[in-house]
Amino acid sequence: MKELICIVCPKGCHLQVDEDRNYAVSGNSCPRGEEYGRMELTHPTRVVTSTVRCTGGAHPRCPVKTEGPIPKELIFQAVRCLDGVELTAPVRTGDVVVADVCGTGVPFVATRDL
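The structure corresponding to this sequence follows.
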């Protein structure tokens, strides 16, 4: 039995996930908690946030994030793919910075206008 704290909403439900019973989840107060508990043990994913260099704008760095979650084991590789990226202003929120993060099909996008 694994114990987790749900991060899907601000409630922070204390979940118990029984791996022996096909990942049965208890302690959740909504269906999203059940889905989170099951996914966290079978295929954990995260949205990754970082910054990249930017020239010609008001700020030297532009915040970026993955447009959706990527597998947790690819986080460090995903951040390394941003090392050589340099944007040139103007940059708009939602502009694609890296089109396909580590072969996942999920892009890094800008999260601020510069």
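The two ends are 47 Å apart (CA to CA).
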